[in-house]
Design brief:
The protein has 485 residues and is of the alpha/beta class. Helices cover 41% and strands 14% of the residues.
Length: 485
């Protein structure tokens, strides 16, 4: 963990980052705390530390000093600008300052940038949170890991928020409660904000998706009685479950069977089944299989009812699954709250992406008010060491992964599948819709502010089951499929 310090950015002899060897009160508290410090706690420690600092720079060269909170904020702004100039590379900054001189650099910046105006604008925009008490919905699946674990592990509190994470039975309920403003924000499937904005399947209302929750993390499960039918060409007449029509699960299942020559609307049946009901329907024989989020794929193996036919990462490596979304209205009316909430989600998503944290996360999200699942089942999903139901133990560390960046090209691919299967008709402005809904700029800003790396582009091509998707040619891509509506 590294914490940005408030040292003099023009001094080449000191670092702008605390580190594990630092013994200041802030770093010591961070290292000794079981949960992340809140912004308020960190600020109080910094102010206390500032009060205790000697006035003489020579006697305390590694410490910052401030006469007021205004001075502290000025230093934060200066640090951000200087770090940005050197692309967060503190070694380059220090080398340059030693060579040129901090006073000279400060003078150059003063002539190039209206520093006083920038500081005034930042101070004006740094207002109080419009709301601190929030309702955030989630469907109890491992794809929602960052949204869920941000509650017990303190990530919402870290950014000044009091969030109730509310377990939701299924995606239709999550959509409707969001549209009715019962939820301030919600865990959603990545196609949902696109569909809701376009009015596909619901009343049209502008929604935004500033963060993906997870990538990969799904699987096709078959009932044990079908172990002799591993070839999808043998699946004619099968009944499959998916959690929602506007889901990656539905679109990936359709894509997969169509590549084997099956028409998903004629040769198989696809039913919408809430994730918590998947295993029971498989056991009862109502389904031959499903393409579902976890932990319900692994739960079928745990209960010796089904087996994992394939992970969806083997259909499309790195595909998006779930996301964090809210109405555009919420973000516009509550900009500071929206920013704090997005920070907590992205911070939690990055924490979830570290394999070293996965076992602790499994314990945190297992209780009844969250996933209500056995810890070993969740661990198998999050760690990627799991039984496949066919007698083997697999080791796939990225069976599920967590990456918050909402690629515009992902949105374009989803829109092509909505067009391919008749969920939307007529002309589609793929780029406009993708960029209006998937707010990559917001994600990049927060990721940068928190010290995380982010892509320098928002579009890329994908290869899915050997077929290339060119985001620049969406209509040609739709037309290229033999099976479509």
């Amino acid at each position: 963990m590294t914490i940005e310090s408030l040292n003099n950015p023009y001094d080449g002899d000191i670092s702008l980052k605390h580190n594990r060897s630092c013994e200041c009160s802030v770093c010591t508290a961070e290292k000794n705390s079981a949960t992340p410090l809140s912004d308020r706690q960190r600020t109080e420690l910094m102010e206390k530390q500032a009060d205790q600092m000697t006035v003489s720079k020579d006697s305390a060269p590694h410490k910052a000093q401030f006469d007021s909170s205004e001075d502290m904020l000025d230093r934060v702004i200066e640090n951000s600008i200087v770090r940005g100039i050197f692309n967060q590379n503190d070694m380059e900054r220090r080398t340059f300052m030693k060579a040129v001189g901090g006073t000279t650099m400060a003078s150059i910046l003063g002539t190039m940038l209206p520093m006083d105006s920038i500081k005034a604008a930042v101070k004006e925009s740094t207002g109080k949170l419009e709301k601190t008490k929030l309702n955030v919905g989630f469907v109890p699946i491992t794809c929602a890991t960052p949204i869920i674990m941000a509650h017990p592990l303190g990530f919402y509190k870290k950014y000044g928020l009091d969030v109730d994470v509310i377990k939701t039975a299924g995606w239709a309920v999550a959509r409707d409660k969001s549209l009715n403003n019962e939820y301030d924000a919600s865990h959603m499937l990545t196609p949902m904000p696109l569909a809701m904005t376009m009015g596909a399947g619901s009343t049209a209302k502008p929604y935004i998706m500033p963060a993906v929750e997870n990538i990969n993390g799904q699987a096709i499960v078959l009932h044990n009685k079908h172990k002799d039918k591993r070839d999808p060409k043998k699946w004619k007449g099968f009944k499959f479950g998916v959690p929602f029509e506007y889901s990656m699960h539905n679109f990936l299942l359709r894509y997969y069977v169509a590549e084997f020559g099956l028409d998903p609307d004629k040769d198989i049946q696809i039913r919408v089944v809430p994730p918590p009901e998947m295993v029971a329907n498989l056991r009862a024989g109502n389904l031959d299989g499903y393409l579902s989020p976890d932990p319900f794929n692994q739960r079928a193996v745990w209960e010796k009812i089904g087996f994992l036919h394939t992970l969806t990462k083997d259909i499309w490596e790195g595909h998006p699954c779930c996301a964090f979304a809210c109405s555009k209205e919420f973000a516009v009316n509550n900009p500071n709250t929206y920013s704090a909430l997005l920070k907590s989600i992205i911070d939690a998503t990055q924490f979830s992406s570290d394999p070293a944290n996965r076992k602790d996360i499994a314990k945190a999200i297992a209780p009844k008010n969250y996933l209500n699942q056995p810890v070993p089942v969740i661990e198998q999903v999050l760690t990627g060491t799991y039984a496949d139901g066919l007698g083997e133990v697999k080791r796939v560390p990225d069976r599920i992964d967590f990456d918050p960046f909402p690629w515009h090209s992902m949105a374009v691919w989803i829109l092509t599948q909505m067009k391919r299967w008749g969920y939307v008709k007529g002309d589609i402005d793929y780029t406009k819709i993708a960029e209006d809904v998937y707010l990559a700029a917001d994600a990049k800003k927060i990721m940068t502010d928190l010290g995380y790396s982010s892509p320098d582009k928002t579009y890329e091509n994908y290869t899915i089951m050997g077929k290339e998707f060119d985001y620049k040619k969406p209509e040609e891509y739709v037309a290229s499929f033999a099976i479509k509506r």
